[in-house]
Amino acid sequence: MEQLTLIGPLSQIIPMTGMSLKGPLSDDKLHIIENGGILYADGLVKKVDVYKKLLSEVENLNVHMIRLEGNHICMPGFVDSHTHICFGGSRARDYAMRNAGKTYLQIAAEGGGIWDTVIQTRKASQKELIKGILKRAKQHLKNGVTTIEVKSGYGLTVEEELKMLRAIKEAGEQFPLNFVSTCLAAHMHPKDFTGDKTAYLTEISEQLFPILVKEKLTNRIDAFIESGAFSPTEISPYLSRAVEMGFDITIHADQFSVGGSEVAVKFKAVSADHLEASSAHEIELLGKSNVIATALPGASLGLGCDFTPARKILDAGCALAIASDHNPGSAPMGDLLTQSAVLGTMEKLTNAEVLAGITYRAAAALKLSDRGQLKAGFLADFSLFHTTNYNEVLYNQGAFKPCMVFKDGKLIYDKHNSQER
């Protein structure tokens, strides 16, 4: 059995416990433990309580003590439930062209867009993809992210999608964060595929899906439902096949036009992500369902478009997660903390709603019930910030980063030593 460990004293612990999965949250719902400590072993939290009380309880036990000097607040490790950090190349040229006033279609016609990343990703070896994933994952770690979802979708052939998903799996074996992989082979109709969209989706479902199951590469299937990608009618047989094979469904929905969120509700998807174009009708549908609504403010910042109507989504009774959408085209920043703080400002979200969106509600968007909160039986994933008050974290809009990050109870990032453990 692993050594029992007690860390503290912590000026504040924000355990994110005792709050609802769905709907609005006021800041007074946050259960704040002042001068607290965390007792853990075997990578799991045993107890979270006042530090002096925990000290007295373990007085006669063999306990490893991590005694902190100075002021620290503690939050659960953040969960980034939507990223595309497996890719080759760069789309900096797209960004410059977009800011200069060119449209998506114009950029695509000049060799940019998703297809540009597909070409560059196909050229990259699996080893090169792993190197890129690890580089970007280190960036997320320094922002306090301890669980990160990573999609394929820049391969768009059976073999190239497998290359991506194998790279994601291997990267996860090399790095201390938890990686959750998702197959996004239905990202767009590949330009070099000789058949129509239906033929492409049929080939992927018949040839790729069985290998995903056999190699245990993912249990999640994503699809981009949009006018330039796949329509609700085109994608439905593909999603039906995925459900039949036991995959969980998530949807890129309502980014530029509506339709995707209705499909997400119909197929009982775990989450519907983007939702910038969602109207009152779509929001009402989501509010009556168990689909997690995921806002992606990084895409709004990258594209210069409207933010997900997060306030309306919460007020309709939805569960709102917030993710970075870290990708080479529309969301290259990849800073979950900054983006979440900005979304909170633009959509008038309480700090409790923002923090819930990147902890336990984001975990729910990945069907993970063992993280996103600090309580007995949950993973000992948490970050420390040098301050006496948790409000400072979002107030600084991403400029204030964790000083230490723990995964499964182990210190994996220490800003003081400028190294990952």
List the helices and strands and how they pair.
Blueprint: E1 4-13, E2 33-41, E3 44-50, H1 51-57, E4 63-67, E5 73-76, E6 78-80, H2 92-99, H3 104-109, H4 114-123, H5 126-142, E7 145-151, H6 158-174, E8 178-186, H7 197-215, E9 220-224, H8 232-244, E10 248-253, H9 260-266, E11 271-274, H10 280-287, E12 292-295, H11 297-303, H12 310-315, E13 320-322, H13 336-347, H14 351-357, H15 360-364, E14 382-385, H16 391-395, E15 404-407, E16 410-414, E17 419-420
Parallel strand pairs: 1-4, 1-5, 6-7, 7-8, 8-9, 9-10, 10-11, 11-12, 12-13
Antiparallel strand pairs: 1-2, 2-3, 5-14, 14-15, 15-16, 16-17
Helix pairs in contact: 5-6, 6-7, 7-8, 13-14
Strand content: 15-25%
CATH superfamily of the largest domain, by name, is Metal-dependent hydrolases
* Average pLDDT metric: 96
Rg calc:
21 Å
DSSP summary: helix tally: 16
The largest pleated sheet is described as: 9 strands, mixed
Stretches where pLDDT falls below 50 for ≥5 residues? none
User: How far apart lie the N and C ends?
Assistant: 22 Å
